[in-house]
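hiii so um. not sure if this is the right channel but i have a protein structure encoded as tokens and i wanna go backwards to a sequence. like what aa goes where. can anyone help
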């Protein structure tokens, strides 16, 4: 049995990805363990999910800080109290400072609702429909200073159907997020997933392609 891997999750909202992580990491044999959940929003439902699972929570309201640097510095302090091996962004809707990203280099993951590098930023489902794309999906990546731009770990592809709306597409993409994020976290916790010095992502000591590992339909 590998050493337990402490994970701190940052979120701003509903926390369905947190729930998927809690469910997966409480399963036997998974070395990842969510030890704290931190939110910039006191009303985030993800905090309720954490408390119900007996996980420590903290709220740092970004509006109480003078600027991004001060907030991120306080956030680092709150996270590092838990000495995590991995920090997971699960719908944490804040742009992070370079200092924050550097501090967690190689141990900071994000999930984004598009097939990156397509559709960085917001309203991805709407934009996919407007573009008439045949496929959409979600991506897990290591976080670097470029917004939604770090090296890819895993992508899940979903088909876009002719009757899809942003809501139906969001629902289907979300379901895939709940599969790929726990998987990526487990790989990391098992020591199988690494960000190499040359910026490539390695799984079992093999460099992944630029798209990461891709799971189709
Ligand atoms: C997820 O769809 C995630 O991909 C997205 O926020 C949602 C959070 O849902 N993240 C981003 O857009 C980051 N750029 P959840 O609170 O139910 O997990």
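sure thing!! here u go:
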């Amino acid at each position: 049995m590998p050493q337990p891997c402490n994970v701190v999750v940052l979120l701003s909202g509903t926390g369905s990805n947190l729930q998927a992580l809690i469910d997966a990491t409480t399963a036997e044999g998974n070395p990842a363990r969510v030890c704290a959940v931190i939110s910039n929003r006191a009303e985030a439902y993800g905090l309720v999910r954490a408390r119900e699972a007996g996980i420590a929570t903290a709220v740092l309201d970004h509006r109480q800080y003078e600027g991004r640097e001060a907030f991120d510095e306080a956030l680092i302090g709150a996270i590092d109290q838990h000495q995590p091996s991995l920090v997971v962004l699960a719908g944490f809707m804040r742009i992070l400072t370079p200092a924050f990203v550097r501090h967690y280099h190689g141990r900071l993951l994000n999930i984004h609702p598009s097939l990156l590098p397509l559709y960085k930023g917001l309203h991805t489902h709407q934009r996919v429909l407007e573009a008439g794309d045949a496929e959409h999906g979600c991506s897990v990546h290591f976080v670097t200073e470029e917004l939604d731009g770090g090296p890819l770990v895993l992508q899940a592809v979903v088909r876009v159907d002719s009757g899809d709306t942003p809501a139906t597409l969001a629902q289907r993409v979300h379901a895939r997020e709940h599969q790929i994020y726990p998987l990526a976290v487990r790989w990391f916790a098992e020591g199988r997933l690494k960000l190499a010095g040359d910026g490539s992502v390695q799984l079992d000591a093999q460099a992944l392609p630029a798209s990461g590992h891709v799971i189709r339909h």
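oh and The CA atoms of residues 19 and 49 lie 7 Å apart.
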